[in-house]
Write a structure and sequence with these properties.
By secondary structure, this protein is mainly alpha-helical. It is built from eight helices and two strands. Strands 1-2 form a two-stranded antiparallel ribbon. α1 (about 1-20) packs across α2 (about 30-40) and α4 (about 70-85) crosses α5 (about 90-105). The chain is rod-shaped. It comes from Sphaeramia orbicularis (orbiculate cardinalfish). Keywords: Cytoplasm, Cytoskeleton, Microtubule. One of its GO terms (molecular function) is tubulin binding.
């Protein structure tokens, strides 16, 4: 029972790496780039016993002659070929199990992905309450964007120049004098 559970986790990891970075991938086949990424992310490549060249050679050996991808069965064969090289001090069966343990439950990592900057300079630049001029009109008091309303020049037919402080006081001034 435990072994079938391990194989399920191995299949889940295979599918996750197979679809990584490819919107058209189904998860049934893995290309060479994703195979190399799996080996690097799961620490199969250790730099001493197993190198990226070894990983590429094994990929080429297990895939079909004309194919550019490997299936799950070919993936298992590739792991079995790499296992004795990665775990030299173990028997072949133990090495294969250790290899499966490295991969089980893992998923692709995104190294070098841009993180959101959290510095005071960026906070100051993105604080909408400090915007002036035409940019100030693009946001309401809460800092939420107004969308199209904030970008378009909305005509007010009041007869006053825009942003005139005493707008609407003419009638009260004239009536007050009479």
């Amino acid at each position: 029972m435990a072994e079938s559970m391990d194989m399920e986790q191995l299949l889940v990891s295979f599918k996750k790496f197979a679809i990584h970075g490819d919107t058209k991938a189904t998860g049934k086949e893995m290309n060479g780039k994703n195979w190399a990424k799996l080996c690097k992310d799961c620490k199969i490549i250790d730099g001493k016993n197993v190198t990226s060249t070894d990983v590429d050679i094994v990929f080429t050996k297990v895939k079909q002659k004309t194919s550019r991808v490997i299936t799950y069965e070919e993936f298992q064969k590739a792991l079995e070929m790499l296992a004795p090289k990665r775990f030299k001090d173990q028997s072949k069966e133990d090495a294969v199990q250790s290899m499966f343990k490295l991969i089980e439950g893992k998923e692709p990592t995104n190294v070098g992905v841009t993180k959101v900057a959290k510095t005071a300079a960026v906070d100051r630049l993105t604080d909408t309450s400090k915007y002036t001029g035409s940019h100030k009109e693009r946001f309401d008091e809460t800092g939420k964007g107004r969308g199209r309303e904030g970008r378009e020049e909305i005509v007010e037919n009041t007869g006053y120049v825009g942003a005139y402080k005493n707008a609407g006081t003419y009638d009260t001034k004239v009536k007050g004098e009479k």
